[in-house]
Specification:
The chain has about 270 residues and is α/β, with parallel strands linked by helices. Helices cover about 35% and strands about 25% of the residues. An 8-stranded mixed sheet has the order 5-4-3-2-1-12-13-14, with helices on both faces. Strands 8-7-6-9-11-10 form a 6-stranded mixed sheet, with helices on one face. A hairpin with a 5-residue loop joins strand 4 and strand 5. The chain is globular, with a radius of gyration of 18 Å. The relative contact order is 0.18.
């Protein structure tokens, strides 16, 4: 059933295509190379910055569309920038001027660097190859606050919920936001969502969401999964996401090569 209509494969990166070591396994690479040989269009959609994501997806060894920063950037298979949208400097400054708990790591995604209020070893471990460099700053001293997105992380989910509520109280209609993980909260321009960016790619390719299958594990994948012809939730996704998308099938975890195994069974294995 899936095979008959599927022309586009969409996957999140962290917690989905990447294993727990933040790398792509040899098995996943081999499956995606076979999918490319069979003319499936491949889209990777991630919350990561494009400089951070590009060396990771290159390991697949196939041309693909890359959606980054939750949809704020789209790069073509030839790495041409097709779309970009930023948050206004004044708006970002107003968020950073709120009474945010100093224990929370706050990050501004800029074009060439990411600026942060504190060194965070766990955050740094997500980059196996440092292509997108951090800069420790005092946010009160910046002159320009223009950013691709604002990212908050803390081990205590409730602290991030409090930040989210505080920002939404001050800016109820300004942003799109999502928990990519329970410990990661992201704010973007209101027009930014993975599903919106993917729709732009599908239009370029004269396709639509009925031709797609998608895989994800975070709330920043929610619209992408719900809109796709067939969406699959990773076994390692939070229970709250599984419950919210209870009509979607849950597959194996990212560390079990869940995406690649499912794609092989559904699209490549001979019946």
């Amino acid at each position: 059933m899936i095979k008959e209509n599927c022309k586009v494969i969409i996957s999140d990166l962290d917690g989905t295509l990447l294993n727990n070591h933040h790398t792509i396994s040899d098995y996943t690479k081999s499956v995606f190379q076979e999918l490319h040989q069979q003319n499936y269009l491949i889209v990777v959609a991630t919350g990561r910055h494009h400089l951070d994501a590009m060396p990771l997806v290159e390991k697949l060894g196939v041309p693909l569309y890359l959606v980054t920063s939750n949809g704020a950037r789209i790069h073509s298979p030839s790495k041409e920038l097709l779309f970009s949208i930023n948050m206004e400097s004044d708006t970002v400054q107003s968020v950073l001027s709120l009474a945010i708990d100093p224990d929370i790591t706050t990050v501004l995604f800029r074009e060439d660097i990411w600026q942060t209020n504190r060194h965070n070893e766990k955050l740094n471990s997500f980059q196996k190859e440092v292509t997108y460099h951090p800069q420790l700053v005092d946010f009160k001293e910046l002159e320009d606050y223009g950013a691709i997105k604002i990212f908050f992380t803390h081990e205590n989910h409730d602290k991030l919920v409090a930040v989210r509520d505080m920002i939404l109280e001050q800016h109820p209609e300004t942003f799109n936001h999502a928990f990519s993980l329970p410990i990661c909260l992201e704010f973007m321009d209101k027009a930014v969502d993975k599903s919106v960016a993917i729709a732009k790619i599908l239009e370029l390719e004269n396709l639509d969401f009925t031709h797609t299958i998608a895989f994800g594990d975070g709330f920043n994948d929610e619209m992408m999964l719900a809109t796709s012809g067939k969406g699959f939730v990773m076994g390692n996704a939070p229970e709250t996401l599984k419950n919210k998308l209870s009509h979607l099938e849950v597959i194996a975890t990212n560390h079990e090569d869940g995406v690649a195994k499912h794609l092989y069974e559904q699209l490549l294995a001979t019946k």
